[in-house]
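pipeline: protein-struct stage 2 | run 1193 | Methyl-accepting chemotaxis protein
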Amino acid sequence: MSQMIFRPWEKAVANIKLVPKLILLMVFSTLLLVAKQLWDANTFRDSVSEVTEAQSHSLALRSAEMAKELLKEENGTALLQRVVSRENATSEMNQYIYFTNRKTGEVLAHPSILNFDGLNLPLENGRMLTEVIRNTQGEFTYHLANEGRHGIAVPVGNTDWLSISSQPDSAAEQYYNAYLIQVAWQTALMIVAFMVILLGGSNLMLRQINCLIDGMRNMAQKNLSVPVVMDCKDEFGELARELEKSRIQLSSVIKTQRHSSEELSDMAEVMSISMDETRESAKEQFGEIDQLASAMSEMTSTVQDVAGHARAASQATEASREQVANGQQYVSNTISTINKLSDDIRESASVVNQVEERVEKISSVVVTIQGISEQTNLLALNAAIEAARAGEMGRGFAVVADEVRNLAQNTQKATLEIQDMITQLQSSAQQAVGLMEQSVVEAVESVESVSKAGEELNLIVEQISQINDMNFHIATAAEQQASVADEMNQNLTNVRELVEASVTVVTELAETSESMQGNAEQLDLKIKEFAV
């Protein structure tokens, strides 16, 4: 089974149809395009602002260098005034240049801008422009509070004059607005072109998908006569070609199956007729074999009775022989048991002798212990005497000596008791040895008596074996006759069962043939529903 597993976000996208997908794609692409153009426009505005600032600073520097040379002349101020008028007359984007003297406050500017950009104007930081000019050394920039302009002041050499370049704040905005209008037109044209291309592509894809859906719908409606044709090399064309291959193969299978279904229906009808005839013939054979099997069964029963009586006589004789053999086995077991008992008694006598010897060794050890206890008693007595001589300082030692003497006396008493017990144990062991020797003699006599009884049983077993052999020959002959009769009866029974099974099989085949004929007709009706 080929199954595609979607991630959660893929499943959400896959649940959207093609047209909404294309619309969403177009909207997202448009938003990205507009965002990109706005980003470029903001970047352009920042670049224009930097460029205008650089141009203003460059103009102020250039004017300062020119003023430096002109002020060296006798009529330098008049020359500088003419230069200011000429530069301002040719300026662009409302950008102006003028000069002012820090000390005297004199201003050299074009008459048309003197009132516009005078020096008694407030700045954004709250100070006045004249105050900043008078108190600031070197270059500086300023922004007018209400005029919407800014300027850059550059000193003219080592003089008190300043070269000031002034331009409106909207200079960069003008370039930005012009660029923004141009970008808006370009973006609108790109969006229109993109929408036209996307709508045309989506319309083409929808037509391709509808063609594939129509082909699949025809196949689902069992109409295989309509080909699926799509003359293109994209994925839809490849899918259409694979669908057409499936249609052709399925149509071929249906045609082959239709022909096979017709042949199967004819064969099922012929088979049904043959099965009916075979079933009737098998029933007749079954009746005849059933009668023959009944007669053979009665003869087999009679022969089995004769064989049963002979077998019973043989079994009775065999049982007698087995009982005598069991008695003989019991005698043999008794002899073995008595012999083993005699051996065990001998071993027990040997063990008792060993016990007696070890008791004597224990007696010698007890004598040694008794001597040690006597010596200990004497030593304890001497220690008590020495402790008495020592007086108060030997009192503790006297107590210990007294305890040791008591322990030695107890040991002597226990030793005497052990000696008495050993003497009694030696006497009992000698009596046990005498009784065991007498038991061995009696066991030998019992073995001889049981052996004679075993010989008599052997003679009885031989005679019973001869009788059993004769009964066995009689039973064997009767069983052979019964076996032959039973085999014949079994063969007839097997034949009867085979014939009965054949009748059953033929009946089932006939029913299966009828069912197969019905299935073939239904299959033919189903196949005819397909239009090929």
